[in-house]
Design goal:
This protein is an alpha/beta fold. The chain folds into two domains: about 150 residues, NADH:ubiquinone oxidoreductase-like, 20kDa subunit (Rossmann fold, 3-Layer(aba) Sandwich), CATH 3.40.50.700; about 90 residues, no CATH class. The protein has twelve helices and five strands. The protein has a five-stranded parallel β-sheet with strand order 2-1-3-4-5, with helices on both faces. Strand 3, helix 3 and strand 4 form a beta-alpha-beta unit. Helix 2 runs parallel beside helix 6 and helix 11 runs antiparallel to helix 12. It is globular, with a radius of gyration of 19 Å. The relative contact order is 0.12.
Length: about 270
């Protein structure tokens, strides 16, 4: 019997699911290894199935999702988050730093019918996560690698180097140095294969903070390119505003005092 796998969707754009649905060869590679028992985007629906691996896309943004993630965790040997929303809160987490009620009133005719939590948070804030796959969207190749390694009893390990190394491997000319573009590559984790710079565009930090990013120094460099402090802050507080590194940098360039959290226990 093949191992059983489920792919769940929480608050998100479906982009991470579509990323490997659109890459047909990758999806076929997965189905040759496992039985997909729940994947509404691709056909099978059984959200409460007991599985070997559960992939989760999206942030926890509603009371239903808050309860559902606990059930998924109970029914899964391994729980893997896929994409920015599930790993850091994604774009939805922008509401954590704003007046979300005012946003709702400005968008919906009857916001009183909405059933939302006050914040949008990553899956790891609520249950134990065995592996996080970053990206906006996630890399299909990383999903297949994770399946192969987990089913072999090996903990997957992906590089945390900055995206600039991927640019070098691709032979790209640096758009930050040569064209003065506000490219986030120096502080961004690799994983996309330097997709945007390969087409002459600046990186948007889809894969989140790299290991030990020097965000203050890099932000100062962006100011040197002509960006105002608020524009620099938006570069950090966009896709991954809920990560500690980028949240701190965003507050710094917005002029908001940063309160360091105590490492000691207690209330």
């Amino acid at each position: 019997m093949k191992p059983r796998v489920a792919v769940h969707k929480f608050s998100s754009c479906d982009g991470c699911q579509l990323a490997f649905i659109n890459d047909g060869k990758v999806l076929l590679g997965v189905t040759s290894l496992v039985d997909l028992v729940h994947f509404a985007e691709a056909g099978p629906v059984d959200p409460y199935a007991k599985v070997d691996i559960a992939f989760v896309e999206g942030s926890v943004s509603t009371p239903h999702e808050f309860e559902m993630i606990k059930k998924i965790r109970e029914n899964s040997d391994y729980l893997v988050t896929i994409g920015a929303c599930a790993t850091s809160g994604g774009l939805q987490a922008l509401r954590n730093t704003a007046n979300a009620e005012e946003w709702f009133k400005g968008v919906y005719a009857h916001p009183e019918y909405l059933d939302n939590l006050k914040t949008a948070t990553p899956i790891s804030d609520h249950v134990t996560v065995d592996l996080e796959l970053w990206g906006c969207p996630v890399s299909p190749k990383q999903v297949v690698t994770a399946v192969r390694w987990l089913l072999s009893g090996v903990q997957p390990s992906f590089p945390h180097d900055s995206m600039c190394l991927e640019c070098k491997r691709q032979g790209n000319v640096c758009v930050l140095v040569t064209q003065g573009m506000p490219c986030m590559g120096p502080v961004t984790k690799g994983g996309c294969g330097a997709l945007c710079p390969s087409f002459g565009r600046a990186c948007y930090s889809c894969f989140g903070p790299s290991e030990n990013p020097n965000t203050t120094s890099f932000g100062n460099r962006l100011e040197g390119l002509g960006l105002m402090p608020d524009e620099v802050a938006r570069r950090f507080m966009m896709i991954h505003s809920n990560t500690p590194e980028f949240a701190k940098a965003g507050k710094h360039f917005k002029g908001i005092p940063v309160v360091e959290e105590s490492k000691e226990g207690g209330n």
